Amino acid sequence: MVKIELDSITFRYGDRRRAPLFAELSLTIAAGEWVGLVGPSGAGKTTLLKVMKGLLRPEAGEVRVNGAPLHELNSLAAFVFANPENQIVSPVVGEDVGFALEQAGLDLDTIRRRAEQALRRVGLWERARDLSHNLSGGEQQRLILAGALALRARCLLLDDPLSMVDGHARRDLLALLAEIREEEGCSLVQTTHLLDEVVNVSRVVALERGRVVFDGPPATFFREASLIDALGLEVPPLVRLGEELKRANLMAGREIMSSRQLLGLLGVAEGRRAD
User: Fold this and answer.
1) How far is CA 270 from CA 169, 175, 254, 263, in A?
2) pLDDT(259) > 60
3) Which residues are CB-neighbours of 256 under 8 A, at least 6 positions away?
4) Among 133, 98, 102, which residue's Cα sits nearest to residue 116?
5) pTM for the full predicted model
6) Which of 172, 218, 244, 250 is the most buried (most CB within 10 A)?
7) For the domain 1-76+154-234, what is the CATH superfamily, name and number?
8) What residue segments make up the domains of the chain, in order of their start?
9) Cα separation of 123 and 138, whole Å?
């Protein structure tokens, strides 16, 4: 697992005459944690991920990975861009997963074994010989995740990973991220502007103009209606329904964060519909 600490970092784009995006910002990502990083465009979400990876260097303060100062790229973390096409380097699915392993100097048998394991893990092994550009947006995101898993990344830095997919593909990818975190022991930091994507994370961190304006569990964040509105975000419909039910004293003291919870509270068994 990976712990990332940002200790009083200051970062700005351009020369020192410009105001910094971050000014003495401190934030810790605990080992094995799933953090949802939310906020409006320009708040600094993507920049913060790049600082955690080591793609950008703060002008002041310190970034530590598992307690050690970060002076180069964070080799324990994989950065996943919003548009997966920007990270696909090979025209063939299986070869794309193996590319980074080849660059790392691993032998052919290890490359083949790890690539197969990773592709099976994300449900793409049957597509290993297919052309990468024939994959759907959701499948391309799975391909990038397979590459990270093959490299044995212990932390995934996900920059709006669901922006290119919708419907069932979004739900499937969220479920896959939850499985990877549980089974692989990865830390996850995911940026998004859609709050239904952070319902099941362990912690929400909200940014506004480079400042942390909220840091806590999703259930607490969703009660901050004025803050959510000020950030230009929207509470997920299901969470909003739960709040309405509580205000009507129908489910006092209970949180509704998912359809499974709602069905459970209504006494409807999973997989069945009410008549």
Assistant:
1) 20, 16, 19, 7
2) no
3) 238, 239, 241, 242, 245, 262, 265
4) 98
5) 0.86
6) 218
7) P-loop containing nucleotide triphosphate hydrolases (3.40.50.300)
8) 1-76+154-234, 86-151, 236-275
9) 11
Maximum alpha-carbon separation in the chain? 66
Percent of the chain whose pLDDT exceeds 70: 87
pLDDT tens column, 210-246: 999 999 999 899 989 899 999 999 888 767 766 666 6
**Contact 202/34 with Cβ under 8 angstroms?**
yes
Distance in Å from the first CA to the final CA of the chain: 46
Residues 6+ apart with CB under 8 A from 252: 246
